[in-house]
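Subject: Protein record for review, amino acid sequence with backbone structure tokens
Category: Structural biology, sequence-to-fold work with a learned token vocabulary.
Format: Residues in single-letter code; tokens as whole numbers, each standing for a residue.
Body of memo: The sequence and its backbone structure tokens, given next.
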Amino acid sequence: MDKMVNEKIAFLNKYTLSSEKKVEFVTDESTILNAPIPEYWKVTFLTDNLEDRKSAILGEWRKYLARELSNTILYLKTYLTNIELMKNWG
């Protein structure tokens, strides 16, 4: 695992409510496909391209909350640098 991933996990582990403090990045295709998350999230996490990931998520938000989240959507479209799926064991 690279240094940046380890740093992210260490940071997130500080803020888990579990005493085991085990955050894990989910990247395995079968785990994602079986995860209890909406289908558009599954498509997102199975896509390697960040722009495609952003389009999938923000496009779904635009369908239902374009007016309410217009500033948030614009900000994320401009500045979002990664979209990752994580699991907190415990």
